């Protein structure tokens, strides 16, 4: 498929899946919006699931490349400073590119088909990165070590997901400047949860 047509198809299909969910997403709407014929579409894809898998794989790779995700070891010298700057990059990406937001919404769809490895693989990779990053923070003294690492990671991931899912599903209702403030609140909540407890503090 020509590159420009592929980018248009990815953006259109990602928006359709994010808005309608997997089961209610319409291939006819996607094909019509892209100005494709059905025969042209089915030359490349056999089914909605095959399109979904291709879109998820492409968008996940694009988002990861655009964000320039730091390696966990990069956080060692300035853990919380780099964490805050990385979250700010996420906000910038979300405000600049609707595809980034649509991918996030797709990751939280409740009706992804069983055995679909694209979404589960993407979320598993994110969770693994967070666990390894927290381990670096613990070894550097920036993250508390008085609770088990597994419980700490589980709690931190739950907090991040709660903020992310709410923000993604309510993105259109947020006013100017609300998303950056919400992400800052997310960062501060995570920092309060994870920073070492100071001796003598209440």
UniProtKB/TrEMBL annotation:
<dbReference type="InterPro" id="IPR001647">
    <property type="entry name" value="HTH_TetR"/>
</dbReference>
<protein>
    <submittedName>
        <fullName>Transcriptional regulator, TetR family</fullName>
    </submittedName>
</protein>
<dbReference type="InterPro" id="IPR050109">
    <property type="entry name" value="HTH-type_TetR-like_transc_reg"/>
</dbReference>
<dbReference type="GO" id="GO:0003700">
    <property type="term" value="F:DNA-binding transcription factor activity"/>
</dbReference>
<feature type="DNA-binding region" description="H-T-H motif">
    <location>
        <begin position="26"/>
        <end position="45"/>
    </location>
</feature>
<dbReference type="InterPro" id="IPR009057">
    <property type="entry name" value="Homeodomain-like_sf"/>
</dbReference>
<keyword id="KW-0238">DNA-binding</keyword>
<feature type="domain" description="HTH tetR-type">
    <location>
        <begin position="3"/>
        <end position="63"/>
    </location>
</feature>
<dbReference type="GO" id="GO:0000976">
    <property type="term" value="F:transcription cis-regulatory region binding"/>
</dbReference>
<dbReference type="Pfam" id="PF00440">
    <property type="entry name" value="TetR_N"/>
</dbReference>
